[in-house]
Amino acid sequence: MIPLAGLLQPIEEPLSRILEWLHDSIGISWAWAIVVLTVMVRVVLVPLTIKQVRSMQRLQQYAPELKALQQKYKGDKQRLNEEVMKFYRENKVNPAASCLPVVFQIPIFISLFYVLRDFEKEVFPRYPGSSLDFLNGVVPRITDTVSDHWSGWMLLVIYVGSQLASTLLMSNTMDKTQRLLFLLMPFAFVIFIIRFPVGLMVYWVTTNLWTAGQGLVTRRAYPRTPVELPKRTSRTEPGAKPAAKGTKPKAKPRPTPAAAETPAAGQPQRPVRRRKKRNPRARR
């Protein structure tokens, strides 16, 4: 833990300075300073979030082609990996872009954990008269652990609900496996979160609420476009390319009467029999 804290020292100091500036210059409490800090971090990550949404949508659009490659090379993993990477390069798809916002938030989250852990010893004494409570005393101290007070458990429930809501709202840009993983994640993290400072829960809940709002905007700005696959009919010959939209399929040429009546070379011509027209009176 100590070596990790040393590696994150370049992130811890700016976070601590930003919290002090928000509290001292703007005059907001330490808890609301964490909320504003969270919003600032998410605003900085907006370009990466846009790349994440577009990357997930492109992966969904090419999902049928990727499944076809998996079926074709299911017995050869090395060839499958080569063909998948080639497919990504040809279609300019970057699957790693869908994880960029999460990857950049992990060091910030861990750094804020260390800032809050030593907050009462290193930062709080320099500001006498300030308070560590949140929501008019509902949360007594943001430096306490989640399990120390019932308000921490309340924030824990809000965290789980906001995480589920943000995942469901962003599900139009996720595949089924990724969506299931994000739905199970908050329940798996509960065991570890109860030992975190309450201020860290404030950061996490604010992040989830931001993600939920982002999901609402994403549904309108980047609607899910279904991929239209060519439909095979009984008349379509195997290997034939489907006709483009707006064009009619070409009809097969019919044999001309002359070609049908012309005998092959070396065969005698058959006399053409003409039917006699019957008298309509004879039929009566």
- Total E-strand runs: 0
The whole-number mean of residue pLDDT values reads 79
Structural class: mainly alpha
Shape: elongated
Oligomer: single chain
Strand content: under 5%
Q: What's the gyration radius in Å?
A: 34 Å
Count of discrete domains: 1
Secondary-structure element order, N to C: HHHHHHHHHHHHH
The helix content, as a percent range, equals: 55-70%
Number of helices: 13
Describe the sheet with the most strands.
none
**Unreliable segments of 5+ consecutive residues:** 227-242
Question: How far is it from the N-terminal to the C-terminal residue, by CA?
Answer: 112 Å
Compact summary:
The chain has 284 residues and is mainly α. It has helices at 2-7, 9-26, 30-44, 46-61, 63-72, 77-91, 100-117, 119-122, 150-169, 176-193, 198-221, 257-261, 280-283.
Account of the protein in words:
There is one protein chain. The protein has one domain (2-221). The radius of gyration is 34 Å and the shape is elongated. It contains 13 helices and no strands. The termini are far apart. It is 61% helix and 0% strand.
Descriptors:
single chain; 284 residues; mainly alpha
Give the secondary structure arrangement, pairings included.
Elements (H helix, E strand, L loop, with lengths): L1 H6 L1 H18 L3 H15 L1 H16 L1 H10 L4 H15 L8 H18 L1 H4 L27 H20 L6 H18 L4 H24 L35 H5 L18 H4 L1
